Amino acid sequence: MLVLKTASRPRSSATATVFDEIDAGIGGRVAEAVGAKLRALAESQQVLCVTHQAQVASKADRHFVVEKSAAKGRTRIALRELSASERIEEIARMLAGEKITDAARENAREMLAAA
Prior knowledge:
two-stranded parallel sheet, 43% helix, Rossmann fold, two-stranded antiparallel ribbon
């Protein structure tokens, strides 16, 4: 789908495209390439992408996190935009998992700077 969208970009009349976990089953260099394609597509239209890959998330202009909570038998889901420092932490978490290290934070900073 991403290839089709980027190939038809000049002729497309779409103003927004949503990709839900377009990066499922990929990682590393391929995820980096997908992130770059999404960023290029975003030059001509709005792109919303649900991702679990730091390589994809780091290419975005804006980064949101979905937060799920349960209380009194009800489940709530909230969407929240991350600040610059929160974005570093989130990308570091995506890279490192539960235990976020200084090395993961530095890697996140480098990824964001390179985008």
